[in-house]
Amino acid sequence: MRKLIYTQTIILLSFSLTMACNIDKAAQFYQKGVSNWNSGEIWASLNEVDKCTDAEAYKLKALSFWRLTVLSFVDESKKDVKANALRTIENAEALEKIKGSSELSLALKGMSFQILSSLGVPSAIKNGPKAAEVQAQLEKNYSGKFWTRLVKGINQLQAPGFAGGNVDSALVTLQKLNSDFPDSSTVTTYLSLAYSKTKQKEKAVQTIDVLIKKEPLNKWAVMVKRTF
What we know:
The chain is an all-alpha fold and about 230 residues long.
């Protein structure tokens, strides 16, 4: 009888874990959240994989928390930006423990360190060098790849000059990246910001307007346009 109860318990636990780790359903919520710029759907994705500890789950968690970081940035909630960026890094590093570093895991960490460095001088001192270190790793191991070039462009655009920042270089990097990946809304947004920072307001507005027309729900693009 005890053996039967033990077996049934194991089966129920296995079934419960399977039900709690629905990667396909989580991915669907994530894609909807990205398309709709809807944090509720992103959180629904995270709920589906909350107890999952495999590589695909950590990858999706890292991507989801990065998207929440962006949404928090749009909402101008520094507290949530910090919390979500740290969770992005945490899950990217968990992914690396299972599969080793990848271009995506490094890029998610690099972008998180960079956005954390925008939260004030103490955070910049702590996280700016980490963003630069990740960029160096990316350029060494994944030279010429999409995420590597994006992180490089972001760092050039946002880092101070003594830490490798250079808005003119950023513009060149992002123009080339936009030419190669014209459908990336993230690249287009940063390119628009680069035009603005190089005093080319007309091009900045034109670039972001094209994106807003294509993606009217893109909260980040709408916020960026308001800064011009």
